[in-house]
Amino acid sequence: MLVHTLTGPACARRSASGRGGFGHTFRFGRTHLGCEARPDVKRGRKKEEHNGEESRHCQLKKLKAEIISKCMTQAKIDELIFNFIVEDCQSFYVLEQPGFRKLISGLTEGLKSMDRVTLFTKVDQGFSRMREELMAKLGGIQYVCTTADIWTANNRSFFGMTCHWIDRHSLERKSAALGFARLQGRITHDTIAGRIHDIHVAYNIDSKVQTTVTDNGSPFVSAFKEFAVDVPESDDDIGFYENVGAVLEGEPEQDMLLFLPTVQRCASHTLEQIVTEDFWQAVSQGPMCQLHYSTMAKVYSLWSKCHHLQVGMDAAEEIGKMALVVPAVIRWNVEYCAVQKIVSLSERELTELCARLEVVRLQAEEMAFLKEYVTVFHPLAFALELFQAEQKCYLGLVIPTVLSLKNKLNEQKDSANYFGDVIGAIVVAIDVRFQELFASTEAKIATATTPQFRLWWMAASDREEMCALLATEASQMDPGNIPEANTSRNVSTIESEDDFFSYGSAKPTVQIQQRGVTEEIRKYIEGTGKSLECLQDFPRVKQLFLKYNTTLPSTAPVQRLFSQKGNLVTSQRNFLTDDYFERIQLLRYNSLVCAPLAE
């Protein structure tokens, strides 16, 4: 048998056919040798590559462990866990959950989660450090305002208090929480007055508080009526605070002189009283009573179906691309927004939604009633949003807002088809409920020293008297507390055409030093700037602004202290004592004005 060994092109042709042209079986030397060697070569290469990948993987894993060990120390992990518990108000028992411990161990390459004892110690240390830093900040503040409110949930009542001031350099509002204490037993005006007084004294701000803003509830009204700081006519008018805790513990009974600052009624709560009490009374006595009740009954049926049935919520999201929820009774602006959502639906969408939820459909007249409701009371909802702001809301905002609200309502009175009489009743209610505010000298000065309003809101015949009052108040200010005019502003910055055109330096600082108090007030009143930055050129007016506009118009900040996060006052806090629960809330709220929670 002949064995032919072919090379070159013939080898390639023969390898493709597999047989020789003469019926012989050919074996190709190079092909034969290659077939014998390649499998081992491939297996060797794969093995080497696999070993190389494992080696690189091990090196990367070691490098990752080294980086984590350098960056994530046990102290750093404890700090992050502490911030997680405080900022999100988590239960302390999270630390003992096996899943949480495995999560921390897996993410940190073997580091452990701290136990509850360590967490309690860190809470104590963080609270002491936060309190010291906050007291140091408040020590350098001249004017502060506090807000107080009581929140009841899950058969527990809590007393909250926040503190607010304006930075004298940047004119930015700063806020801090002072108290989140549990109230036990009967809540009386003595209890409330004692809490307010104790917190003011504990932070050494009792002489700095301009006003305390509260709602219009009877306990707060009685407390400030009884223990107001007004100068008494006789000794019988002085309020005394009885230390109930000392009496219960058997200590000798001692009466303490108790003084509270002046009280400022919550403007947003006053507006809500107008739309929840005066509005309902006007509607029930007017010709639109039946239409109003039939319309709102159908609206509440929609809300109820969407709230209690998942199919209702799914239908609302599918048809109207929105969530319809039952609004809170005490928050009228939430109810207004809910009505606004229903009005925004088209006729087809509303018909389909009512059919899917098996609710009686709103008639054409009822829809027209709701649309006018949304249009007429939009200014009132806008005013509520202004009052519930915090950073850019001052006492000087209240009078112009209320005056503008009355004008907006009166403008719609003649064109209203359903709410003409109701608008008149609401305007009268505004005059009655804000009568004390319009008569307040402090509120007038606060408004006049706000550059956005100055004296434009006043009648021309009253402006001269107001200028004289401002001059008198400015002349009585302590000269040591009056800041100098700001000379560090960059006047060469060009951001608009108004910044480009220049007609020579006005030298405001020199002029202010030369002119007297009356001339400074005149120059300020004649100005047109609406930014707070223009107060830097009028140091006496700026000082008046700091004194009278430190007061907030509403208790919205202390309400946020209770309602922020979904698990504040819930059954989850049952694992904590009242003292530690308060410390957690204050640490969370004050993290923006004090040092980081854990260091």
From TrEMBL:
<protein>
    <recommendedName>
        <fullName>HAT C-terminal dimerisation domain-containing protein</fullName>
    </recommendedName>
</protein>
<dbReference type="InterPro" id="IPR012337">
    <property type="entry name" value="RNaseH-like_sf"/>
</dbReference>
